[in-house]
Design a protein that fits this description.
Helix content is 12%, strand content 32%. It is built from three helices and ten strands. The chain is elongated, with a radius of gyration of 18 Å.
Length: 171
């Protein structure tokens, strides 16, 4: 497996506002309103929560899309704090851990396509208090693109398991 950084090129929106360029890891709370009446008080740095959105456009080659169709292409999120939902090209990805400190993988099988792709992440930290210490919020750890390289991925593509995405379709 080959691991590539996926930290550049992200955009971020706070509570439905305009998107701005960010680099992950990124703490969404740092730009949030603070006050003594914040529900979590000092345990969360006197921050109020919110709903935050991240998005990133990325390009996949035909070979990468074929690998994705075989389950050989995935994204690893080391940590998303908290209550995340993820979409790739408009398809919501299931099984995102609700807790913020659990690393997990998102397979791109069935959602990746040749050319430009879009990943979107929504984080909801409105429910406060939720911890006894400051956690931050958002994409607070690294994001990686994992690709199975070499003979296994080539054999998968040669068997015609690339699906429509390998041919440039919407698959």
């Amino acid at each position: 497996m080959r691991r590539s950084s996926f930290r550049e090129g992200w955009e971020f929106s706070r509570n439905g506002g305009l998107f701005e360029a960010v680099r992950v890891p990124h703490d969404a709370l740092l730009g949030e309103h603070r006050g003594p009446d914040a529900p979590a008080g000092s345990a969360n740095g006197y921050f109020f929560g919110g709903v935050y959105r991240y998005r990133k456009a990325f390009v996949l080659s035909e070979a990468q899309t074929a690998a994705a169709a075989c389950g050989a292409l995935a994204l690893e999120f080391e940590s998303i704090y908290r209550n995340a939902r993820i979409w790739v090209n408009g398809s919501e990805i299931a099984d995102v851990p609700p807790y913020g400190f659990t690393p997990f993988f998102v397979e791109l099988k069935g959602v990746a396509r040749v050319g430009e792709n879009l990943i979107e992440v929504e984080v909801d930290v409105r429910a406060q208090p939720d911890l006894r210490w400051y956690s931050g919020a958002g994409l607070i750890r690294e994001v990686w693109l994992w690709e199975r390289a070499g003979e296994a991925a080539d054999a998968c593509a040669n068997r015609g398991e690339g699906g429509e995405g390998a041919e440039g379709g919407e698959g």
